Amino acid sequence: MSANTTPRRALIVIDVQNDYDGGNLAIQHPPFRDSVVNVARAMDAAAAEGVKVVVVKQMAPETSPIFAKGSHGGELHPEIARRERDHYVEKSLPSAFAGTDLEEWLRANAIDTITVIGYMTHNCDLSTIIHAAHVGFAVEFLSDATGSLPYANSAGYASAEEIHRVVTVILQSRFAAVLDTAEWIDGLKTGALPKRDTIYASNQQALARNAA
């Protein structure tokens, strides 16, 4: 897609399920109560501007501690469940493309750009975005319509804020244009395209910042 071409977008709403809303996998940063409002705003803006909306849901066995089949935690959050959508995808792996018909549906609808929102920044969003970039889609990511949680494991510890911040910086360097919901909605109306960076430019800017 050239810089002068109007994107043919689809909004991909990933795994906005109850377990993230204070459940067994509670989102901490940005807080779920704030980010889910932006998810809803983006869905409403997409509908108003004729952007197709795809809702994705993570599926897990009945014995799983998260997203268990038939559980309240595994169901779509009410704000998402009550809104209209153009396509629905159920997945069992992090990427919304893996083992689903998402790519086929996007191609059939002549989509060249996907805007990713939902959860989590560092897992299903990250996987979906990298997958999309590898199969030729331009990607946008709304950093305030998503969120992360803290991890501690044999590799160390990272807070929710650290994980979210670092992943968004990495995405902006190569894989997606990172912006907030208000900027994205404004761009739908004005046609303004979001800023995209490169690995080299991102590194050069960091070196200049460190030298200052």
Explain this structure to me?
By secondary structure, this protein is an alpha/beta fold. It has a single domain, classed as Isochorismatase-like (Rossmann fold), CATH 3.40.50. The chain has helices at residues 32-49, 78-81, 102-108, 121-134, 160-175, 181-190, 199-211, and strands at residues 9-14, 52-58, 87-91, 113-118, 138-142, 151-153, 156-158, 177-179. Helix 2 (78-81) links the parallel strand 2 and strand 3 (87-91). Helix 1 (32-49) runs parallel beside helix 6 and helix 4 (121-134) runs parallel beside helix 5. The model has no long low-confidence stretch (mean pLDDT 96).
Features:
Rossmann fold, alpha/beta, two-stranded antiparallel ribbon, 212 residues
Q: Radius of gyration, Cα only, in angstroms?
A: 17 Å
CATH architecture: 3-Layer(aba) Sandwich
What is the number of beta strands? 8
Beta strand %: 15-25%
**Helix amount, in percent?**
25-40%
Topology as H/E string? EHEHEHEHEEEHEHH
Task: Calculate the mean pLDDT score and round it.
Answer: 96
> End-to-end distance, in Å?
36 Å
CATH superfamily: Isochorismatase-like
Structural class: alpha/beta
List the strand order in the largest sheet: 3-2-1-4-5-8
Low-confidence stretches: none
The global form is globular
